[in-house]
Amino acid sequence: MISATHLHAMLVHFPIALLIVGFLADFYGFFSGSPFFKQAGLFLLLLGAAGAAAAYFSGETAGEGMEEGSLGQAVALHEQAALITVWASVAVVLVRLSLVALKRFQGWPGLISIVLFALLIASVARTGYLGGQLVYRHAAGVELSLPTFSDTE
Prior knowledge:
Elements: H1 4-11, H2 13-32, H3 35-62, H4 69-102, H5 107-136
Helix pairs in contact: 1-3, 2-3, 2-5, 3-4, 4-5
């Protein structure tokens, strides 16, 4: 059966990949003027922001019951970073969509959008790092099972 922990582990990698590739596409589109890469960057940003929200809410459920001790502190830090990432992705989406609506992705407005997107990627990296610490340092979500021996003789 898939638990909240399994679902979170499956979901979190999508926004990481989508947002990083979206940033690269947007960056290239801005500096090359390529309409394809500008559009690709926008669509990947939208998908990545939706994925970040899904990952956040699945992580909220997966983190229930882990509020005590050093694990609880690590979970709280990761959760705080994830919430910042979700809000940052919403902010970048709003900025980027407004620039598309105003047809102002060139010059300073576009450059500000690229810088905000880069800050979002830094937030994604921090959130991912803290999530990795939960798994690899604190073994959060790791299920250990001992082998079962049966009488087959």
